[in-house]
């Protein structure tokens, strides 16, 4: 069969053949097994995209702007119906000099919220030496679902540890690992 006949037959059988199917349905609120896919500290400017060239462009247009600092984390659901779905978190460490207030959510409150969320993640993932130390860590995380002003439901990871959760989910061992016995010599 030649290429043209093959593709005509394939498209006749499935008009959506070759098109990516993306499920943008939000995750239902609840606990999910997650892994940290990436974790990095980066600069940001309020109102600009997060790529370095966009930040450089914003700063070159207004040299008085001092970029802020945030930790950007990508989480991935590891199991179940929603496996491979990603959640994105940006946690502010220092606000950019042009950071706007959104209602009562001031730049100071943005920094305080970011610090609080990062400390909650530290309880779950351990204290890193470098931000990338969290990459590959497995844990159970509580995913929230909230409706925005535009009516769309968005997911976030609840980072903080609620009262009564003193024993917050700890990083889990990989499924195929063998537990290690004691460190005592065998004799």
Ends apart, CA distance between termini: 70 Å
Model regions low in confidence, pLDDT < 50 over at least 5 residues: 167-173, 177-181
Main beta sheet: strand number and arrangement?
5 strands, antiparallel
Classify the helix fraction into a percent range.
10-25%
Strand content: 25-35%
Global structural class = alpha+beta
Q: What string, H for helix and E for strand, traces the elements in order?
A: HEHEEHEE
Shape: globular
Would you write up a description of this structure?
The N and C termini lie far apart (70 Å). The longest helix is centred in the middle third of the chain and has 19 residues, at 107-125. The protein has helices spanning 3-13, 52-61, 107-125, and strands at 30-44, 68-77, 86-94, 138-147, 153-158. With 187 residues, the protein is α+β, with helices and mostly antiparallel strands. A hairpin with a 5-residue loop joins strand 4 and strand 5 (153-158). The chain is globular. The protein has a five-stranded antiparallel β-sheet, with helices on one face.
Question: Briefly, what is this?
Answer:
By secondary structure, the protein is α+β, with helices and mostly antiparallel strands. The chain has helices spanning 3-13, 52-61, 107-125, and strands at 30-44, 68-77, 86-94, 138-147, 153-158.
Layout: helices, strands, pairs:
Elements: H1 3-13, E1 30-44, H2 52-61, E2 68-77, E3 86-94, H3 107-125, E4 138-147, E5 153-158
Antiparallel strand pairs: 1-2, 1-4, 2-3, 4-5
Keywords, please?
3 helices, 187 residues, 27% strand, 5 strands, alpha+beta
